[in-house]
Write a structure and sequence with these properties.
Radius of gyration of chain A: 19 Å
Number of helices of chain A: 10
Shape of chain A: elongated
CATH class of one domain in chain B: Alpha Beta
CATH architecture of one domain in chain B: 3-Layer(aba) Sandwich
Number of domains of chain A: 1
Structural class of chain A: mainly alpha
Number of helices of chain B: 10
Oligomer: heterodimer
Radius of gyration of chain B: 19 Å
Strand content of chain A: under 5%
CATH superfamily of one domain in chain B: P-loop containing nucleotide triphosphate hydrolases
Distance between the termini of chain A: 28 Å
Largest sheet of chain B: 6 strands, mixed
Helix content of chain B: 40-55%
Distance between the termini of chain B: 44 Å
Structural class of chain B: alpha/beta
Shape of chain B: globular
Number of strands of chain B: 11
Strand order of the largest sheet of chain B: 7-8-9-3-10-11
Largest sheet of chain A: none
Order of helices and strands of chain A: HHHHHHHHHH
Number of strands of chain A: 0
Largest interface: A-B, 17 and 29 residues
Order of helices and strands of chain B: EEEHEEEHEHHHEHEHEEHHH
Helix content of chain A: over 70%
């Protein structure tokens, strides 16, 4: 709920800024702003802690003990929790994107181009949101309660700072960052893919996905994070 | 209903269960007594597959569900369908009402809708939460939460009711009502296994008492026999130290007074 509310509110409060981007650079400019906003604010600060406290808090407050004393398997609980979190992320991301696409159309953007880019980048963003969520699950597998939350927030700060430190040049970032398994980097690079800057013109979605390892980076770490979290949870003492 | 053999559970360097053997028979109201940290909750959580002991064997309803570090999840799930469990400390969903909470729990048992509604109404009446049925659980007092936890444990009309320190946080009226509910379970032919560190909580309702100290079952008998044995040992002038491991657990708050008598 918090994610949905924040996503919608931020879209609303950024309308003026997004209008400027659109006026200067059209739909790619608008999406560039959208992706940067999501990458900078929502991913680290909302989705990561959401994942970090999701199962951990159920263990801390005993809900998991109540539920798993019923005829349910641990797998049922893990998947049920994951699916509900993914649903929250999906609803939040969809509302955010819908607001932005509607706003682009209101500004007079061509329908087909807006929908095409909106859907394509929306899907990629969703995959990355899930990756952040999975990273939160991984943290909670090793640190429960406030420790996990604190670690996720530290990570949320550390990732953007390290990105700026390691990649001072956007151009270098665009060429190299896709090889680094960081969801935030993916977003910056995806943002660059529709960058309004002349030296980095908008690229078709197909070409972005064809970057070596790009799609794999959006999916494989997610699966690894979730697999490790599950392996820890299935043998965890739930006391 | 429950058979535990040589159960061993170690948390890092603390041995919580040290070769525990225990049996709860059908129709028994079994009081599981012991001081804090004796291993009561660890035993209960092991029985439900919520923690992983290192060694031993657990049977539920005659089926082996755990052996030497591994649960048979299929058998455990089947057994859990016949168990009601009330944890010692647990928060249910604060944003739900008691009706919604019990509905979620009933869904875990696959109880049909019509039966579910009837059962929820009966249980809210039984635990005295009928008037609070539309309030959010987040606004409940500690005692009301305990009542709701009991209601969720009874939702499936369990053959075996496992209660972990169920009367903690209840006022005297609540404790009396709670004991009456346990007696009702006995009249219905159910089995109840409940833990406490306070003797007064198991008195009157339990037909058998087991005392666990430092992860081992020290004594298991009717409460009358345990008391008689205690007095006999006093009479034979055993030192307080020799009888203390189980008497201090059995006698709870009274142990200090008796201790002074025995040593004075």
């Amino acid at each position: 709920m918090a994610f949905i509310a924040l996503a919608t509110l931020t879209a609303f409060f950024n309308l003026d800024m997004l209008g400027d981007y659109y006026a200067s650079w059209g739909v790619p400019g608008l999406l560039r702003a959208l992706i940067s906003a999501l990458a900078g604010v929502f991913l680290p600060f909302v989705v990561l802690p959401l994942g970090a406290v999701s199962i951990g808090s159920a263990i801390e407050n005993g809900t998991v003990r109540v539920l798993l004393s019923k005829p349910l398997r641990r797998r049922d609980f893990f998947l049920g929790t994951l699916l509900s979190d993914i649903s929250a992320v999906f609803i939040g991301a969809t509302l955010y994107l819908a607001t932005l696409v509607a706003y682009a159309l209101h500004l007079g953007a061509p329908l087909s181009k807006t929908l095409e880019l909106g859907l394509a980048f929306g899907s990629l963003l969703f995959l990355s949101l899930v990756q952040y969520l999975a990273l939160g699950y991984l943290l909670s597998a090793f640190m429960r309660g406030r420790k996990g939350l604190l670690a996720s927030l530290l990570l949320a700060f550390a990732v953007p700072i390290s990105v700026v430190a390691v990649y001072p040049s956007f151009d270098v970032l665009a060429r190299k960052a896709l090889f680094v398994p960081s969801p935030l980097l993916q977003h910056i690079v995806l943002g660059m893919a529709v960058s309004p800057k002349s030296e980095l013109p908008p690229k078709p979605v197909g070409e972005i996905l064809n970057y070596p390892g790009n799609l794999a980076l959006l999916v494989v770490p997610t699966l690894v994070y979730l697999a490790v979290s599950w392996l820890k949870f299935r043998r965890a003492d739930l006391r | 209903m429950i058979r535990i053999e040589n159960l061993v559970k170690t948390y890092k360097d603390v041995k919580a269960l040290d070769g525990l053997n225990l049996e709860v028979k059908k129709g028994q109201i079994y009081g599981f007594l012991g001081p804090n940290g004796a291993g009561k909750s660890t035993t209960i959580l092991s029985t439900l597959g919520l923690i992983f002991p290192q060694e031993g064997r657990i049977e539920l309803f005659g089926e082996e569900v755990f052996r030497d570090g591994k649960y048979d999840e299929g058998r455990l799930v089947k057994a859990k369908a016949r168990i009601g469990y009330m944890p010692e400390h647990a928060t249910l969903w604060d944003f739900l009402t008691p009706v919604q909470t019990l509905s979620v729990i009933a869904d875990a048992f696959g109880i049909p809708k019509a039966e579910k509604e009837k059962r929820i109404n009966e249980l809210l009446d039984l635990v005295g939460l009928k008037d609070a049925r539309r309030r959010k659980v987040g606004k409940f007092s500690k005692g009301m939460r305990q009542r709701l936890l009991l209601a969720q444990a009874l939702i499936n009309d369990p053959d075996l009711l496992i209660l972990d320190e169920p009367m903690t946080g209840l006022d005297p009226t609540g404790i009396a009502e709670f004991k009456e509910i346990i007696r009702e379970q006995r009249r219905a032919g159910k089995t109840v296994f409940f833990s406490s560190h306070i003797l007064a909580h198991v008195e009157e309702v339990c037909d058998t008492v087991g005392v666990i100290v430092k992860g081992k079952l020290r004594v298991e008998d009717s409460l009358d026999n345990i008391k008689r044995e205690f007095l006999r040992k006093l009479a034979t002038r055993l030192s307080w130290r020799q009888i203390n491991p189980w008497t201090s657990a059995v006698l709870g708050g009274r142990s200090r007074r008796l201790g002074r008598i025995s040593t004075g």
